[in-house]
Design a protein that fits this description.
The chain has 269 residues and is of the alpha/beta class. It is elongated, with a radius of gyration of 21 Å. It has ten helices and six strands. The N and C termini lie far apart (49 Å). The chain has a six-stranded mixed beta sheet with strand order 1-2-4-3-5-6, with helices on both faces.
């Protein structure tokens, strides 16, 4: 008679095998790898940055259009010292939702100050740019030089309020579009730095490779990578549910299974 322990182990093994097979399906891979469908927490309203810890009118909300007609929801964040110098005009201004970026105080301060610099933030997978740990990162970055460092944060297609759905090639287009928008506004006067986290490391590096091949070549002032990965298959195989359960860890023990899974990965379609 089969023991209870044996039944549990057999059921667990069968469930794991089912999960592995499901992970070879393109749609499932995208849901796990990008996790763009995970909602923001209750009370985190992207249209009200003040709820997320920002001051009134410190964040300008707008859309960046991509060449393939997708709309990327973005924030341009004013550094604290610049905000303090213009506190009256910032507080008196009417808090608004998404408007033309050229009509915002953030854009005015950015373009009129010759010493201003911009850090373009490429976030990782899951949720939106309004996630708590991401907004904390914006403030940390800007605090390094609160009199001149602006932060531009944006969501990729399929994330949050953006249109479309995520694919590898599509997100690279998004990354290039964000850089092109920023360079077009700054007219090459201010240096652009990039802060990259997790998923964003691959996207921004692809964008950097694109711009360095331009004639003349365009180089970023700096690129800061955090929690980077070498390729999508390795990243997918190392994925842990909730950061605890390494679902595909057993596959990493076999080169043959890794090659099979690599062929099955179709995130870039």
């Amino acid at each position: 008679m089969i023991s209870t322990t044996a039944r549990v182990l057999a059921t667990t093994a069968a469930f794991w095998l089912l999960c592995v097979c499901l992970c070879t399906i393109t749609w499932v891979q995208r849901q796990i790898f990008y996790a763009h469908w995970i909602p923001i927490w209750v009370g985190q309203d992207l249209d009200k940055p003040e709820i997320l810890g920002f001051l009134k009118n410190q964040v300008a909300q707008f859309y960046i259009q991509t060449p393939d007609d997708q709309s990327l929801y973005a924030w341009l964040i004013i550094p604290l010292r610049v905000y303090a110098k213009n506190e009256n005009s910032s507080l008196e201004g009417k808090a608004s939702n998404v408007i033309a970026i050229q009509d915002t105080l953030a854009f005015e301060f950015l373009t009129e100050c010759p010493e201003s610099r911009v850090v373009l933030y490429f976030h990782g997978n899951a949720r939106t740019r309004g996630q708590t740990r991401k907004t904390e990162a914006y403030r940390t970055i800007a605090s390094e030089a609160s009199d001149k460092i602006f932060v531009l944060a944006f969501d990729y297609r399929g994330f949050g309020r953006c249109t479309g759905s995520p694919t590898g090639s599509g997100l690279v287009i998004d990354a290039i579009a964000a850089v092109e928008w920023l360079l077009g506004q700054l007219e090459f006067r201010q240096l652009v730095s990039c802060y990259l986290h997790s998923l964003g490391t691959g996207l921004a590096c692809a964008a950097a490779n694109h711009f360095v091949k331009e004639d003349p070549a365009i180089e970023f002032a700096s690129i800061m990578l955090y929690a980077a990965f070498s390729d999508t298959t390795s990243a997918f195989l190392s994925y842990a549910v909730g950061g605890i359960l390494p679902l595909l860890w057993p596959l990493r023990r076999s080169k043959r299974l890794q090659r099979w899974f690599s062929v099955s990965a179709r995130l870039h379609k």
